[in-house]
Amino acid sequence: MTDLFDISGKVAVITGGSRGIGRMIATEFVRRGVRTYITSRKAEPCLKTAQELSEIGECIALPYDLSDSEGISAFVADVSKRETHLDILINNAGAAWSATFDDFPESGWDKVMNINLKSVFFLTQQLAPLLRAGASAENPAKVINIASTDGLKIPRLETYSYASSKAGLIQLTRLVARTLVGDHILVNAIAPGAFASDMNIAARDEPDRISERIPAQRIGQPDDIAGTAVYMCSRAGNYLVGSTISLDGGIVNSL
Fold it and tell me: Among positive and negative, which fits the CA dihedral 91, 97, 100, 101?
């Protein structure tokens, strides 16, 4: 019997895979023998990350803007030309916007909702044929949506569209999971807390200060998010359906 956590030989797509949480997951996937496609809106960092990760395994950069239907369709067409099936989809690409209630702009609402919620649904919808193609009861395909603890609790900052989009993503995960489980596609989510990234500047630049508010007394590390993704995408995670794992050092569960 193979290792319970073995994901070698699988094919994965990770959106927003050039940096932050996406890169953390991509690095571990590549190291474990997964043929990993990463995509991001900015071509240069996407190509650079793929080049660096290709030193330890197989990583392919496909830079696309997934915030609109044209970009999604073009990306799916590109992947479909290269692969006959897809085992793993990590919907990680995201955006945030902070402004006071009285000044919060419509542009900040639409940008965040389009990337964090709308594009996740339509990318999953369009990649579903590839996910179905290689899926079976014994070897289900996996979709992981990267949500946030801000979708489970009230955030400290006035990030109205971000928190709303992540809460919506958690509900979308449940609904799509119910729809696709019959096709042997298991949809779940991770709600990360504080991980150092360009989106979470406070965790990146002031980890000691942020750690004081976390029961575990530290911010998340690459192994934390990567290990959780490996578990969920391996045979060990084959009974997870529509679940959201709060990966936050105990913040949500200490409320």
Answer: negative
Phi, psi angles (nearest 5°) of residue 150: -70, -15
Give the separation between CA 49 and CA 59, rounded to whole angstroms: 9
- Residue 69 to residue 110: CA distance in whole angstroms: 14
- Using CA atoms, how far apart are residues 192 and 196, in angstroms rounded to an integer? 11
* DSSP letter, residue 57: S
| CB 88 within 8 Å of CB 22 | no
Residues with catalytic annotation? 162
pLDDT of residue 61: 98
CA distance 43 to 18: 9
| Interatomic CA distance for residues 243 and 255, integer angstroms | 20
Q: Domains, the chain, ranges and CATH? A: 11-247 (3.40.50.720)
Residues 22-51 have pLDDT tens digits of: 999 999 999 999 999 999 999 999 999 999
Predicted TM-score (pTM) of the model is 0.95
pLDDT in tens, 99-134: 999 999 999 999 999 999 999 999 999 999 999 999
Q: In what order do the strands lie in the sheet with 35-39?
A: 59-61, 35-39, 11-15, 88-91, 141-146, 185-192, 244-247
